[in-house]
Automatic annotation (TrEMBL):
Name of the protein this chain belongs to: ABC transporter ATP-binding protein
Pfam families: ABC_tran, oligo_HPY
Primary location group: membrane
Keyword Transport listed: yes
Gene Ontology CC, one term: plasma membrane
Organism of provenance: Rhizobium redzepovicii
GO biological process, one term: transmembrane transport
Membrane topology designation: Peripheral membrane protein
Xref: InterPro entries: AAA+_ATPase (IPR003593), ABC_transp_ATP-bind (IPR050319), ABC_transporter-like_ATP-bd (IPR003439), ABC_transporter-like_CS (IPR017871), Oligopep_ABC_C (IPR013563), P-loop_NTPase (IPR027417)
Residues annotated as domain ABC transporter: 14-256
Keywords on record: ATP-binding, Nucleotide-binding, Transport
Localisation: Cell inner membrane
GO terms, molecular function: ATP binding; ATP hydrolysis activity
Length: 314
């Protein structure tokens, strides 16, 4: 994402520059570039296998790119950083995972899950009463502190567990939150509540957020910017409002055309005609292309290298 396209925003917290990741012959990321800014979220959208989780893992330093550069507050992160800097980076960048059931230890209470990261954070200088901090954190994610603190994970609903996971991520006062499909395993009825919570904690904590989803319809709930990915490439990106209201790439249009109610995964179902058209769009979007076209103040698409006449109508 080009910072200069929006001069009011602050310096990027995270910047990916032409990130590539190969797994043997599989080219999972073919040159991905975007930035995350404080108090703003970027939605990374695409179907299964397009490279979303690989991006998240590279940002969290759980995986190393095979090419390109990763920056934190303007400093390039090298393949093997100094141990102290690595630890501090891992505190700055927190993740919320898809599965709220497996990410909490069934043997420990909610208090225990929050106390540990809070204690670690206090070592880095913040002094406050631990019980008070747990109360504050639970309240900040919409959980009743007195009722919730002594509960074990199995006594909580999926949505409550995901709130605990978000509280745990916030406990170390990160500057970056990566939420990888945070609602896809939750009941449809509570997904919007969790997205609203993510949008609120982003604002209140000035977080630079990466919101990963296969569901393009949810991007606008959380994210000011969007990157649509297909087969390891960014195909359309920019202001969420601009991309969703005026999608220019056929693949983005395909995703939007398959969103009947915002809850059905677009990769399944659909009429035979739709599936045939979807395959056509995918095969047109697959070839690598370095041609980028600016179609709005902060709105870009990757050129297909074919005439529009060959594109299926959406
Ligand atoms: N450790 C690995 N070894 C081999 N291939 C991998 C590995 N991790 C990812 N891949 C491949 O890289 C590509 C991108 O995977 P990735 O998990 O990033 O996609 P995704 O968009 O997050 O999909 P999903 O939504 O299903 O998690 C896929 O083709 C996947 O099979």
């Amino acid at each position: 994402m080009k910072a200069e396209a929006n001069p009011v925003i602050a310096e990027a917290v995270i910047r990916l520059e032409d990130i590539k990741r190969d797994f043997g012959p599989v080219r999972a990321l073919k040159g991905v570039s975007f930035s995350l800014f404080p108090g703003r979220a970027l939605a990374l959208v695409g179907e299964s296998g397009c490279g979303k989780t690989t991006c998240a893992r590279i940002i969290a330093r759980l995986d190393k790119p095979t090419g390109g550069r990763l920056f934190f507050r303007g400093q390039e992160l090298t393949a093997r950083g100094e141990a102290g800097a690595e630890r501090s980076y891992r505190r700055e960048v927190q993740m919320v995972f898809q599965d709220p059931f497996s990410s909490l230890n069934p043997a420990f209470t909610v208090s225990h899950h929050l106390a540990r990261p809070l204690q670690l954070h206090r070592q880095s200088g913040v002094k406050a009463d631990l019980a008070q901090e747990i109360t504050r954190l639970l309240a900040s994610v919409g959980l009743e502190p007195e009722v919730t603190r002594q509960k074990f994970p199995h006594e909580l609903s999926g949505g409550q567990r995901q709130r605990v996971n978000i509280a745990r991520a916030l406990a170390v006062a990160p500057s970056v939150l990566v939420a990888d499909e945070p609602t896809s395993m939750l009941d449809v009825s509570i997904r919007k509540d969790i997205l609203d919570l993510l949008a609120r904690v982003k604002r209140e904590n000035d977080l630079a957020m990466l919101y990963i989803t296969h569901d393009i319809a949810t991007a606008a709930h959380v994210a000011e910017e969007i990157v649509v990915m297909f087969a390891g490439q960014m195909v359309e990106w920019g202001d969420t409002e601009s991309v969703l209201s005026d999608p220019r790439h056929p693949y983005t249009r395909l995703l939007l055309s398959a969103v009947p109610d915002g809850s059905r995964p677009f990769v399944t179902g659909g009429s035979a005609r739709f599936l045939e058209q979807a395959e056509k769009v995918r095969s047109l979007s697959r070839p690598e292309s370095a041609d980028i076209e600016q179609v709005g103040p902060n709105h870009f698409i990757r050129a297909l290298g074919v005439s529009n006449a060959r594109l299926p109508k959406s």
